[in-house]
Amino acid sequence: MLLKQFSDFNLECGTDEAGRGCLAGPVTAAAVMLPLNFENTVLTDSKKLSETKRDLLKPVIESEALTFGVTHIFEDEIDQINILNASILAMQKSIAKLNPLPEFIIIDGNKFKPYKNIPYQTIVKGDSKYLSIAAASVLAKTYRDEFMNKIHEEFPMYNWKKNKGYPTKEHREAIKTYGPCKYHRKSFRLLPEQLEFEF
């Protein structure tokens, strides 16, 4: 069973990101504040859920959350500030969209930067321990997948519909064949032997 709260504050939000290890597309974060009486036996870390289950959970989370926010940080900004800073910025911008703002923030992982002096706690594997972080992981993943499916239409040769921008063998082969496109992160090692690309 996932835990409801980490702190003693009523207004506690969980936040998580998706797409950190991808070669293309945004890093996407979500922040979710759930009511204290929220219950869901299916909800867990989005990586442990099938795409079908995540898609079914998305509207449930959105309708039952007290408030939620989702943010994409795109490849140009990732290249400028690096992926860790981009992930934290995406989480902070998602928290900024919450109304009311949280009294306490729990974050999946071990890195965060203070936001508006709100107390916080980073929790390694938090998405498989706390409901609000699990809910944020599902929203981050589903919103990001939606975006990758959309840009797949523009560049079908990379098959983002399937790999969502992650460094699969097929995705790397496509980069080798067609070169990178505008959605690829230029600061990432796109190929193991990283050839010099003409951007």
UniProtKB/TrEMBL annotation:
Keywords: Cytoplasm, Endonuclease, Hydrolase, Manganese, Metal-binding, Nuclease. CDD domains: RNase_HII_bacteria_HII_like. GO terms for biological process: DNA replication, removal of RNA primer; mismatch repair. It is found in: Cytoplasm. GO terms for cellular component: cytoplasm; ribonuclease H2 complex. Manganese or magnesium. Binds 1 divalent metal ion per monomer in the absence of substrate. May bind a second metal ion after substrate binding. Residues 10-199 form the RNase H type-2 domain. Pfam families: RNase_HII. Its cofactor is Mg(2+); Mn(2+). Its EC number is 3.1.26.4. PROSITE patterns: RNASE_H_2 (PS51975). GO terms for molecular function: manganese ion binding; RNA binding; RNA-DNA hybrid ribonuclease activity. It is an enzyme of class 3 (hydrolase). A divalent metal cation binds at D16, E17, D108. Belongs to the RNase HII family. Endonuclease that specifically degrades the RNA of RNA-DNA hybrids. NCBIfam families: PRK00015.1-3. This is Ribonuclease HII. It comes from Siansivirga zeaxanthinifaciens CC-SAMT-1. The gene is rnhB.
